[in-house]
Amino acid sequence: MLVLYITIVLIVTTIGSISGIGGGIIIKPIFDLLGDYDTSTIGALVSFVLLAMSAVSIFRNVTKSKKIQYTQLIFISIGSIIGGICGQSILEKILIKSTNDLSIKLTQNIIIGILIVFTIIYSFMKNIKSFNCNKKYVFILVGFFLGMISAFLGIGGGPVNMAIIIIVFGLDIKEAVIYSLSIIMFAQISKIITISFTSGFSGLDLSLLPYLVISGVVGGLIGSLIQHKISSTGIKKLFNIMQIIILVIVIINIIRFISF
After folding, report:
1. What mean pLDDT do residues 106-114 have?
2. How would DSSP label each residue in 87-120?
3. Are 1 and 34 in contact, with CB atoms under 8 Å apart?
4. How far apart are the first and last CA of the chain?
5. Which of 1, 25, 222, 239 is most buried (CB neighbours < 10 A)?
6. pLDDT for residue 66
7. Does residue 59 contact residue 51 with C-beta atoms inside 8 Å?
8. CA dihedral of residues 6, 47, 167, 240 (deg, nearest 10)
9. 156-176 burial string, b = 16+ CB within 10 Å, else e?
10. Could you give the percent of the chain with pLDDT greater than 90?
11. Which residues are within 8 A (CB) of 93 and not within 5 positions of it... i.e. 6 or more apart?
12. What is the reported pLDDT for 121?
């Protein structure tokens, strides 16, 4: 089991670092499919893995990229921190009121499926108008919305981040990767802090956490190295392929949870 989980995290975080999807939107449904952990445990494991992966990826991307607008990056990160706190708070309230963990997983997977369908439609549409917005408050609002989704669903945000960032701000895909990873990182920081001060980690099985975090760091390093060696077209193709894979896994989960 340990080898399986480490392998999944390594592959997914490598791909997530390259394409900007983060990896949580793949890891979460796969962990649900494997069925070894409850919603709270999966959420905590994914958050720590995403934090490790995104931090490494951002550091390497920031030191190599000359196109980053740091003011914009700061504002979108501030929004994601606030959104992450709100998203985790909402999830914890639902977890307290619900006694059926499967129903929560079903709801999360349905929402993930809807979001993925949206991004798939966006990916295959041509001549979509970008708003090229440069307002500071818009960066905060976008960061808030995406951070809230990231924390509530335990997915990082990935494809949804990329689609919305490109549409609203008119960035190219390589620039959007950095913004997406920043949202993922700060949303997970706020999610982890929120858990620490509310429900805590004492009731969660985090025995695999050190191994998965190391795997996430390695995946982030490998992905950031590869990302600079492939074209924007290559990244977009990888992004589209991963969306289809995610949708298939989510559909399997939905059918499985409904059948229980």
Report:
1. 90
2. HHHHHHHHHHH---HHHHHHHHHHHHHHHHHHHH
3. no
4. 24
5. 25
6. 60
7. no
8. 20
9. bbbbbbbbbbbbbbebebbbb
10. 31
11. none
12. 85
Cα separation, 148 vs 176, whole angstroms: 18
State whether residue 172 is helix, strand or coil: coil
Query: Confidence band (pLDDT; 50, 70, 90) for 252?
Result: very high
Mean pLDDT, residues 65-76 taken together = 80
pLDDT at position 95 is: 84
Place of tokens 């390259």: 18
Contact 31, 258 (CB under 8 A): no
Amino acid at 238: L
The Cα–Cα gap between 241 and 220 comes to 19
Please tell me the chain's helix, strand, coil percentages from 3-state DSSP, rounded to the nearest 5. 80, 0, 20
**Could you tell me if 182 and 73 are in contact, meaning their C-beta atoms sit under 8 angstroms apart?**
yes
Tell me the backbone φ, ψ of residue 133, rounded to 5 degrees.
-75, 140
Mean pLDDT within 14-21:
80
Distance CA 29, CA 243 (A): 12
Burial class (CB in 10 A: 0-12, 13-18, 19+), 260: exposed
C-alpha span between 27 and 14 (Å, rounded):
12
Q: Residue with structure tokens 């939905």? A: 254
- Give 68: exposed, middle or buried? Use CB within 10 Å, 0-12, 13-18, 19+: middle
pLDDT at 67: 66
The least confident of 1-5, 113-117, 148-152, 225-229 is: 225-229
Q: Could you tell me the CA-to-CA distances from 249 to 41, 67, 195 in Å, in that order?
A: 20, 35, 27
Q: How confident is the model at residue 163 (pLDDT cuts 50, 70, 90)?
A: confident
Q: How far is residue 5's CA from residue 77's CA, in Å, rounded to a whole number? A: 29
